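Protein entry
_____________
===
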Amino acid sequence: MRKIVAALAVLLLALVIVVTVRTVRFAPVSREARRARTLPPENDSLLAEHLAGALRFPTISMQDSGPALAPMRALHAYLARTYPRTSAALAHEVVGPASLLFTWTGTDTTLDPVVMMAHMDVVPVEAGTERGWTHPPFSGDIADGFVWGRGSLDDKVGVLSTLEAVEALVTEGHRPRRTMYLAFGDDEEVEGHGAAAIVALLKARGAHPLVAIDEGSAIVRGIIPNVARPAALIGIAEKGHMSVRLTVSAAGGHSSMPPAQTAVGVLAQAIDRLEKHPLPARLDGAVEGMLTELGREMPLSSRIAMANLWLTRPLLIRMMSRSAATSASLRTTTAPTMIQGSPKENVLPIRAQAIVNFRIIPGETPETVLEHVRKVVDDTAVAIALAEPPAPPSPVSSTTSAAYEVLARDIAVLEPSAIVAPSLVIGATDSRQYAGYARDVYRFLPIRIGPADLDRVHGTNERIGVHDYARGVAFMTLLVSDLSSQ
C-alpha cells in the first residue's frame, strides 16, 4: 500500500511540475518590433462624409429577389465620382448584375496576386423597427462622433476604406509590385453569387491568388471573458452551412377526431431529438489557436488551463458548451428555424414540414451532418432531405504565411495594445467562394467592436465612430501598400 501511495505522490509531483513549467513558459509574445511604424495621417471629416454618402444608397439584398439593382448602380456611379484617381488608374468592370472588380496591375506579373474583398449590399431594416433608430438607417447622418446607417459596420465600411486606401496610394504615385484585385460583391447577404462570378472570371483569366482578405473578424474588447486587452481576431477559417427539410405526411382530417399522434407531433419529436443530441464539441484548429494566444494574457487560473490543454481540454469543452456564443465555436450547431403545418386551427395537417439549419465546423462535412440527422431522428415517418445546396466549411488558412505576418504586423501598428490571434468565423462571408482557390484566406476588418456593438450589426442603430473609421482607412492604406509590395 505504501508503494502505491508513494507512486501516486511521485506522479502527482511530476504532474504539478509539468503543469507549472508549461504555465511559466506560456507567456505573452512580445511584438515590440512591429510597433515602430506609424499610421499615415487621415482627414477624419472628409472620410466620414465619403462613407456617409455611400450609406445613403439602399442597396438592400432580399432573400427572394437578390440585390436592388437601381441603388446598386447608383452607388457604382457615386464611387467613380468619389475616387476618380482609382477609376482612372485601375481597370474596372461590372461582373454579373452588379458586382465590381478593379484590377491594379503589378510591375511583376509573375507574382501571384492579392484579392481585397468587401460587399456593397446590406440587409433590410426589419419592418416596425425604424422608429428605434436614433438616425434613419439610410440617412448617412454624421452626429455625436459617429457615422450612422446600415452598412457602416457590414460592409460598406470595407468597400470605402479599401477604395480610400487605393486612392491615397495612387495619388502618392505608388506602383504595386504584386497585382491587386479589389472585389466587391453585390449579394453577400443572400447567396454570394456575385463573389462566385468574380472567382469564375479570375480563374478563366489564369489568376492564382496568394491571399484573399475579407471581412469577418475585428478588434474586440470586453467580449471575451478574462481578456482585458483588445483582441484583434484574424479569421483563418469559417463555418459552412446547410439546411435540412424534415417532412411528415399524414391522412389529415378534422381536429375533433385526431389520431394518437398528428404529423405535427411526429415532426416535433424529431426536432426535439435533434436539439437534445447535438453534434459533438471539440477544441482544435482555429479555436485552439485563438485560445492559445489569448490564454497567455489571462489571469493565472485561466492561463494554467490554457497552457495545459493536453490535460484540461475536456473541462474547457464542458465549460464553453454552457454558453451559446462559445459553444458555437466548438461544434456544428443545430437550429430549427422554420415550421409549417395545417393552414387552419381545426384541420389536421396532411403534411408538416420543418427547416433545421446547421453551421458546420471545419473538420465535418455536409455528408457527415446529414448522416447525423438520419441517425438521431431514426424515424421512417420523417422524410429527410437537403433544403438547398450546402456550403461546406472553409479550409483552415496558415498562421505562418507572409501574408498573415503582414496582417499581424500592421494590426500591431493600428492597435499596439491588441493581442493578435487567429479565430473561427461562425457566420458566412463572400470569402467562402475563394476556398480551395486562394492559397490563404483571412477575414479581418479594422474596426473596434464592443459589447454594445454586437446587436448593431444587422440590427438597430448601426454606426461607426468617425475617428475609428479614419484609423481603419489608415490601416487599409498600410496593408494594401505592404501586401502589394511584398
Summary: The chain has three domains: 44-236+393-485, 240-279+331-389, 281-322. The chain is about 35% helix and 20% strand. The mean pLDDT is 93.
